Description:
The protein contains 5 helices and no strands. By secondary structure, it is mainly alpha-helical. It has a domain at about 25-84. Helix 3 crosses helix 5.
Amino acid sequence: MRERTAGxxxxxxxxxxxxxxxxxxxxxxxxxxxxxxxxxxxGLDAALPVAVTFVALTxxxxxxxxxxxxxxERPLMRRLAPRR
Length: 84
């Protein structure tokens, strides 16, 4: 709310991330788990530093959560919204 009253400008990617926060919360471990299985199957866990693994798993969680928000959550919310 502060961005509306104080003239604070929030970058659009952060606004979209905030809008997808529920999907991120719900699906983070699903997409991190899938990415981890891929990571292990390809041997990247042994080949790359832990910091790279952390960044990749975090990116998988964010990307998957954003995809769920865009493809599932928002269309479902529009469909279930009361008609005016």
